[in-house]
Hints:
The chain is mainly β.
Amino acid sequence: MGATLLGRQTSFAGVNHPGQQLRLPLDWDGSPxxxxxxxxxxxxxxxxxxxxINGLLPGPTIRLSKxxxxxxxxxxxxxxxxxxxxxxxxxxxAEYDGHPNQKVAPGESYNVAVPIVQDPSMCWYHAHTHDLTxxxxxxxxxxxxxxxxxxxxxxxxxxxxxxxxxxxxxxxxSNASYELxxxxxxxxxxxxxxxxxxxxxxxxxxxLPVDQGVWRFRVLNxxxxxxLRLGFSDxxxxxxxxxxxxxxxxxxxxxxxxxGPGQRVEILVSFDGLSVGTSTIxxxxxxxxxxxxxxxxxxxxxxxxxxxxxxxxxxxGSTAIPSTLPALELTDPDKSIRTRTFALSRASGEHTINGLxxxxxxxxxxxxSGNVEIWEFVNQTQDYHPMHSHAAFFxxxxxxxxxxxxxxxxxxxxxxxxxPGETVQVAISFGPRxxxxxxxxxxxxxxxxxxxxxxxxxxxxxxxEIQRAGDxxxxxxxxxxxxxxxxxxxxxxxWETINSEPSIAGDLFEWREASTTSRRxxxxxxxxxxx
Length: 531
Ligand SMILES: [Cu+2]
């Protein structure tokens, strides 16, 4: 019997309610991330065997800021399974991204050092072990990774502190007697392994005491395959303020939104208007499907599912909502140099992209960092495919050829839900992190086949030409290379970046300075990209 502490509880209010008060995953303390098989007390008095990270399910919440470097040791202490963790949403160098070829054997460990170069956003981490991702994530190998800027949030007027709550949602099969067993049938390999009960931050029958103010909830769909149609039991509307890549630029009001596996959404919910002693339930609303979405007798895609009950135990609370959010500069689809089409289909019981199932050793395509591309996902099936790219954020530009008007399609995403029969276009551009990455469906029963390797390559460094013209030095280089900045050094050790814009001379960029008698060295350095 392992009565493991699975998280702290909010200190807010003190009224008791049926079910379990929402747990908040403990924050990561910098110690090694240890993956092991353990007994957990998820249901009071019941022992559940599952996979834990540092004894927790979900794993500890990693909180860092832009400019930090995430350094950690990952220890695989599973009994017999290889494992590797992927930092979903982090713009990580390829060698630490958690590609399945980076898996380590039981008893082994590895280190990562990922510079945090992106704006605040809600990321997560999960197992990405080839052929085992669905099984390991279902049994518990996942956690939150928050890139935060509390000062910015306070300046924007967003709820912080106890009014800013992460909700890691996943489903679970309750007919398995308190076990997190993963045993998909052939049917579930096709449509996904769906549960009939929700765990929120690992809490069954979760509830949270709230006041009548505005709350910020950051919701992760951590289900293997279930699409969540988020909405409230009293049909209250809520504001959509962000997704995978951080805040949107506006706060649109909706009564429901669809969140595919792997996707995150940040919402503002006001409990103003609910009197003390009443409650409302955040649930996944029922929705019709074209095809069966579960086993013949099991849970199905589109079934309603209660996630968490909010009990208004306290009066008052701040009802302020920011009127606007900072503008975003999204990738310009007009700068696209090509359209890449990915046909998502199923043939002979296999999930394919452009007719192919995943092969670890095959590189399916190359993209050049800095280029803008349109990626077009063509869903030729009756199922949902949440398509995820590592190493970049994109923005959704059209659905079925029409510019998208869905509030949740704003802003930056790393995963987009492609509905049955739908064609979705996104504009994507990769930063200066070369190497091997993955693009795949985040239905984790599809992922092992519906996945491709791609390689990010960097353009050749343009050649510098250095000439003396009278008492000036003229440094020039080919001009369409806007990703590069000129740097100067006198000792080849420290380099000073020239921040003034170079002038354009024909098809060259040109920069001049007065010649000196001291030694001067010049080089081009890639401009760091944050998105
Ligand atoms: Cu899929």
